[in-house]
Amino acid sequence: MAPRLLICFFVPVLVLSGCGDGGKKTSAGPPGIAAPTELVRSADIPDIDSEAGSVVSDDRIDLSSRAVGYIKTLDVRVGQKVKKGEVLVRIDPSEVDKAVRQARAGVDAANRDLADAERDLGAFSTGAEQGWASADTKLKARVRRDIAQTTLVKAEAALADAQAQRAYTAIESPVGGVVVARYKHGGDMATTGVPILTVESREVLLFKVFVPESGVGRMTPGLAAGVRIDALPGEAIKGAVLRIVPSGDPVTRRYEVARHDRHSAGHVRPGRIRSGQFPGARDSETGVGPARRPGGRLCRGRR
Asked: How far apart are CA 184 and CA 255, in angstroms?
């Protein structure tokens, strides 16, 4: 039997292994840095116009006398608080009493003249019926009677006016408030239309400001507007635009805007400087506010 040749093929097994440092895990990139993340959202940002102005009273009254005479009593002082209906000034009624006496004498004379004219008319009417008085005489008597009646009406009106003048010798405050100006003193002559005192009410306070033409076009009555007082930092007062004067100042080119306080605090006084904030235009699609997302991690070198 012929010998057989046994040929063995050895196939080497190649084992591929990775390069490492003894099985330790390798880093895939730089280490991460812990930091808060911010979420940006889209919103509208209101454009706020801030203008400086001052607090004023909407009820400031100049008190004057309707009767002419010397001031008998004037005891109030500037800064004094007064009540509505309180008598502030008394005018010497001597001149007024004199006018009342003259007017009453005129009424008495008119009554006597009317009575005499009525007697004449009655007598001439009888005479015209009996034939001893002419119709023309009777007519003249009737005209005289009518004139006497008109004179009496005028005299009574003059008496009523003189008596009303006496009521004007006591000047009352029409509002409750504070005396802010005094122009006369006791013994001075009070004349019609000339102010004696100025009383300012604190019931309705306005914030008056003058804004440029570019800002007044965006304002309308009723527009919400905030106000901050320089002397009261941190306190904001809510209110609304009350009125806008459409005629601008020819020198400053600004327009007067009055704002009404919805809830004026007791310590808010006229004359204080304020900063008014009025809504203007709006810028849309603007990123605002970041909204914080806690627990975030920002990794450097990664996307």
From this structure: 35
Contact (CB, 8 A) for 101 and 158: no
Per DSSP, the residues of 11-44 read -PPP------SSSPPPPSSSPPB---EEEEEEEE
As averages over each run of 10 residues, the pLDDT of the chain (303 residues) reads 43 44 53 69 62 76 89 92 93 90 95 93 89 88 93 95 88 91 92 92 79 75 71 67 81 77 56 55 42 41 42
Dihedral of CA atoms 145, 151, 156, 162 in degrees, nearest 10, equals -170
Structural tokens at position 58: 């909407």
Q: In what order do the strands lie in the sheet with 60-64?
A: 60-64, 195-201, 177-182, 81-82
- Please list the helix, strand and coil fractions of the chain in percent, rounded to the nearest 5, in that order: 25, 40, 35
- The sign of the dihedral angle between the CA atoms of 114, 118, 123, 127 is positive
Q: What is the CA radius of gyration of the chain?
A: 48
Structure tokens at 174: 């029409």
Q: Which helix (H) or strand (E) holds 88?
A: strand 87-91
Question: CA–CA separation, 212 vs 198, rounded Å?
Answer: 32
pLDDT tens, residue by residue, 214-244? 777 777 787 777 666 666 666 666 777 778 8
Q: Which H or E run includes 190?
A: strand 189-190
CA distance 107 to 99: 12
* Structural domains in the chain plus CATH codes: 46-58+204-293 (2.40.30.170), 59-92+169-202 (2.40.50.100), 95-168 (1.10.287)
Rounded CA-CA distance 192/17 in Å is 118
